[in-house]
Amino acid sequence: MILIRHGKSEPWDSCPDDAQRKLTRGGIKDLEKILPALKSHVSGLKLRLVSSPLLRAVQTAQIIAKYLEIEEIEQLDWIGNGDDEGLRDAYQCPGPAAVLTLVGHEPHLSAWSRQLCGFTIPFGKGSAVGFCVTSREPLRARPEWMLLPEIIQPQRLSVKCGAAALPQFQKILRFQLCEVFQTLQKFLNAPDDPETAHQFRIKIRAFRSVLFFVKPLLDPEQYKTAQDRMRQLMQKTGRLREIDILKSEWMKLLAVYPPLEKRQSVLTAALTSERQQEQAIICGDTSEMTLAIFEIWEWAENALAPEAADAGQAESDIKTQSFACFTKKRIRNHLKKVVTGLETIDDKDFGAIHALRIQCKRLRYALGILDPLLDLKRTDTAASLRALQDILGGYCDTRRNLSILKELCAQYDSPEMHCESAVLSGYQIRMMEENLSKIKAIEVIRLR
Questions:
Q1: Is the model's pLDDT at 352 over the cut of 60?
Q2: Most CB atoms within 10 A, among 3, 18, 189, 198?
Q3: What is the DSSP letter of 321?
Q4: d(CA 102, CA 65)
């Protein structure tokens, strides 16, 4: 089943008859952006295209039908009215097997999504969501993919540099949440591939970095709730990622140390077993992960709207700052904190090193998202942060690898395991010492 919201249409006050409001030129262009991706999702499938009779929905359906070479469009009153029974009856309707593809309106689409999967999916204009039906009676489905016009061309998020900051960040956070959802689906489709879990975690970090960036404009309690929810989501794959990192280090060592390759590795078998167990736990029930994404999305749609912001939560001058002004000030402040961290870092204080790593990572992700939108020309700064992050990250990862190896030795107690673990531990200690030397040698770079 596919649910699609019509494209942008004429404003209410421009047409006395709501049913006759037409798509705008921009609305048509937005729809055209998602058509190639929509076609790839439905390739080889037969579609039954149904639409609300309101003109803006009919025009949307006609654009889709022409691109996908669909001959017939059914106009059904219940779609315009938001009749719950109509959706169920349409899906249950006997006939040739076809994907029910429905073009409708808000708030009906969001309400139907809640009935189908248990949580609300916000439908922006020109967006489409593909569902996999899991039950016919009662009708239930889970979302599998989503298309938004701004996701197709993220460099054109329509961010206005001179406009108030909060609404512009709302667009960015919406984009990031869609990225989180898309990478979650890629992970679930290929959980054996370590890169899919890695990319899922990267997208969560990117969202959390932007959310931290806009913190001064948000209600403190709501901000904390959103960050905690996304942190918990990322922790779902934390152990999996740690195992992948450790296994990658072990594979590197095997490749350059031939004596270890001549026998079957018990450490490799243990890491493989641990990953399979962790993967089974994660994939056993993914509904909670999807729910978390769309709960935060619903919050971003409502709480971040300008009219919903509590004026008492921030100074008035901050609230009225433009997107460009607010962003540049925040970048300067974050850079100062990184430089201060470098100047005062104690190479024996693991907590401080880890905290500085997080600061670098957070700022780098934010810069990667904001630089193209504001043309900040901060690519050199981002590259310096990446290099610094790699040094700090290498040190932190090796520390964690040693802890995991100790846990595995206790769990898989055998002479072979202790031998291989000792070899890898020695290698990791050497890597940790090298990274520590690099940390000691770091000069306070000028992050301008």
A1: yes
A2: 3
A3: -
A4: 12
Region 334-346: what's the mean pLDDT? 87
The pTM of the full predicted model, rounded to 2 decimals, is: 0.88
Half-sphere exposure of 382 (CA within 13 A, CB side): 13
Burial of 208 (0-12, 13-18, 19+ CB in 10 A): buried
Coil/strand/helix, residue 185: helix
SS3 (DSSP) at 49: strand
Nearest to 209 by CA among 329, 326, 366: 366
Q: Would residue 57 be called left, alpha or beta, if left means φ above 0 and alpha means ψ between -120 and 50 degrees? A: alpha
Name the average pLDDT for the chain: 89
Mean pLDDT of 246-267: 84
Q: What CA–CA distance (Å, rounded) separates 356 from 350?
A: 10
Residue holding tokens 């000792």?
422
pLDDT digits (tens, 9 = 90+) for 49-84: 999 999 999 999 999 999 999 999 999 999 999 988
CATH class of 2-152: alpha beta
pLDDT at 308: 52
Q: What residues does each domain of the chain span?
A: 2-152, 216-441
Question: Which candidate, 403, 217, 407, places its Cα nearest to that of 300?
Answer: 217
User: Which SS3 state, helix, strand or coil, does residue 7 take?
Assistant: coil
Q: Is the dihedral of CA 277, 280, 285, 291 positive or negative?
A: positive
* Cα–Cα dist 141/113, whole Å: 8
Sheet-wide strand order for 73-75 = 73-75, 47-51, 99-104, 2-5, 128-136, 139-147
Q: How far apart are CA 354 and CA 398, in angstroms?
A: 12
Q: Provide the β-strand partners of residue 128.
A: 4, 147
Q: Is 131 helix (H, G, I), strand (E, B) or coil?
A: strand
